[in-house]
Specification:
TIM Barrel; alpha/beta; about 15% strand; single chain; 8-stranded parallel β-barrel; binds 2-phosphoglycolic acid
Length: about 260
């Protein structure tokens, strides 16, 4: 599989961090550090920071995204935000199916699929998260879990729409734990997901798909993880909150 066929994407997942002032500060600090990046740079920020982040990132190479969106265009869904609302603000990306949403907010493969559909319909690029729990890895069903999550999430997504999908392979046991998958484990799982996509669509679609690794990726381990032929980028949590660390990961993906 030829890495040159796809774009490397380093995306920050700020999670529930930063006030507007903090968001402005972080984007301003980041801008000069990533200005010459040889990869796509994205910051997925809390809804309340979208406007601030979009404004701060104007005329820079940093793209702004959100961390979730609802599956309906509008309606009686108190507390929710639609894809259309995000697109109207100018957000280009949205994370869907993050394991924290699956774990704490009752997200299922079915609702992930519905949200992917809604985000694509709104014109957004989706960062779709899949990944196994520790006990699933121990039971040697990582492949099955990732295949199932990927297949259900992409149900009803056309080959053309797949060009607006990035898959983030995030082993749940590696998220926020400081425990990173080995480069080999990350490469293997990303390669496996690419095979699943090749079977769902075709080889060309799979070869063009950006697949990120996520889970305690940092300035020290990024280069090794990104050197894997099927790892095309990273979804970065903790390390995306520090401009220097995030910029170092961007640099590692720019070679
Ligand atoms: P982490 O988070 O880098 O802090 O492990 C990654 C993620 O949750 O996307």
């Amino acid at each position: 599989m030829n890495k040159n066929l796809r774009k490397a994407v380093i995306a920050g997942n700020w999670k529930m961090n930063k006030t507007r002032a903090g968001a402005r500060e972080l984007i301003e600090e980041l801008k000069p550090l990533v200005a010459g990046a040889g990869c796509q740079v994205v910051a997925c920020v809390p809804y309340t920071n979208l406007e601030t982040a979009l404004k701060a990132a104007q005329a820079s190479n940093i793209k702004i995204g959100a961390q979730n969106c609802h599956w309906a265009g509008s309606g009686a869904f108190t507390g929710e935000i639609s894809g259309e609302m995000l697109a109207e603000m100018g957000a280009g990306y949205v994370i869907i199916g993050h394991s924290e949403r699956r774990q704490y907010f009752g997200e299922t493969d079915k609702t992930v699929n519905q949200r992917v559909r809604a985000a694509l319909d709104a014109g957004l690029t989706v960062i779709l998260c899949v990944g196994e729990l520790l006990e699933q890895r121990e039971q040697d069903i990582t492949g099955e879990v990732c295949a199932m999550q990927t297949k259900i999430a992409l149900s009803g997504v056309t080959k053309q729409e797949l060009s607006r999908v990035i898959i983030a392979y995030e082993p749940v046991w590696a998220i926020g734990t400081g425990k990173t998958a080995t480069a080999e484990q990350a490469g293997q799982a990303c390669g496996f997901i690419r095979e699943v996509v090749a079977k769902l669509y075709d080889k060309a679609a799979a070869e063009g798909l950006t697949i990120q690794y996520g889970g305690s990726m940092n300035a020290a381990n990024a280069a090794e993880l990104l050197s894997q032929p099927d790892v095309d980028g990273g979804l970065i949590g903790g390390a995306s909150l520090k401009a220097a660390d995030f910029a170092a990961i961007v640099k590692a993906a720019s070679v």
